[in-house]
Specification:
The chain contains 3 helices and 20 strands. The chain has 318 residues and is of the alpha+beta class. The protein has a domain of 220 residues. The strands form 8 sheets. Strands 10, 11, 12 and 13 form a 4-stranded antiparallel beta sheet that branches. A hairpin with a 2-residue loop joins strand 18 and strand 19. The radius of gyration is 29 Å and the shape is rod-shaped.
């Protein structure tokens, strides 16, 4: 992979190499072009998704069964302990789906590709491979970064809450994972026999896609025209050539730059909030209640929340 440093006109009309900040502006702009019409999409379904790791399961504690006696409370050591409830298994993230209908631009030849400074300090036009490495592959590397920004426009993440995260669109109002725990406030001695399973929702997780945030680079690459004159690359060439090329590469690439997603424990950069399955760690709170000659005892869920399993949405290229 050969990444060239394009040249630009500076504020005084001189030709200089683009700075790293200039290139970041370009990666951001190219991601914006992609995000206006993404070719790699992930969706939320009612079940049987393709990205969930054999289903993401929510677990929690429930109360032990009530013990009764006509003359005395059943001792704590012989009452039923709180037990684990295997709740809903979530299998709702599916994809990615690849739109392979697009096509990359044809080879522009010497005329049309940005210029760079070679080892002899001469201006030279990039070839097609240079162009792809410098603009397309480098932009895709930025798009799959684990740190989300405008340069990751058009890619997916996980966020919590009932509304869309800032700069994102929520893909579906259906949560892709919900963490529940036993609602300790719902259990009381006065309620014995309490309903065994009384859950409360702790966190709901939703799939989001980063919006197409408009941005315009402050400096355009310099190219050579058919009359051997130097000029700035046109907006129309940038939008049609670079945008289309990146959209095709993201969905078609056989060179290791095809965007992919998974929800496993490894492989790729994690995106957004980790989806955490938690459960209380208590051995049970022993409680009693006497109603006439009916002596009732029951153990209710208690303790602190502990993480049982962590799931992440991950983005990769391959």
């Amino acid at each position: 992979m050969t990444v060239r440093t394009p040249v630009k006109y500076d504020g005084d009309g001189n030709i200089t190499e683009m700075s790293s900040a200039d290139l970041v502006e370009w990666y951001t702009y190219i991601a914006y072009l992609y995000a206006k019409s993404p070719t790699v999409t992930v969706t939320v379904v009612s079940g049987s998704g393709t990205l969930s790791p054999s289903g993401m399961t929510d677990t929690r504690l429930k109360a032990g069964a009530t013990s009764t006696n006509a003359s005395a409370f059943v001792a704590e050591g012989t009452t039923a302990e709180p037990a684990t409830v295997t709740g809903t298994t979530y299998d709702k993230i599916t994809g990615p789906t690849y739109d392979t209908s697009g096509s990359a631009g044809s080879d522009l030849g010497v005329i049309g590709y940005p210029l760079y400074v070679d080892g002899d300090s001469n201006l030279r036009a990039m070839n097609q491979a240079d162009y792809v490495d410098t603009f397309i592959y480098a932009s895709l590397d930025a798009m799959i970064n684990g740190t989300e920004s405008a340069a990751t426009n058009g890619t997916y993440t996980i966020a919590t809450g009932g509304s869309a995260a800032t700069n994102y669109t929520r893909v579906s109002s259906t949560a892709v994972f919900i963490d529940t725990r036993a609602d300790t406030s719902a259990y009381a001695a006065g309620g014995i026999p309490e309903t065994l399973d009384q859950p409360t929702t702790v966190t709901s997780y939703f799939l989001h896609r980063r919006d197409a945030t408009a941005s315009t680079p402050s400096r355009m690459p310099v190219v050579i025209d058919s009359g051997n004159n130097l000029q700035q690359m046109s907006n129309s060439t940038i939008d049609s050539v670079i945008g289309n090329w990146l959209r095709k590469t993201a969905a078609h690439s056989t060179d290791g730059y095809k965007i992919s997603y998974n929800a496993t424990t490894s492989g790729g950069n994690t995106r957004g909030t980790a989806m955490v399955n938690t459960k209380l760690d208590g051995a049970g709170e022993y409680r009693t209640r006497q109603v006439g000659d009916d002596y009732r005892s029951q153990e209710h869920p208690n303790g602190s929340a502990q993480t049982i399993t962590t799931y992440n949405l991950r983005i990769n290229k391959g």
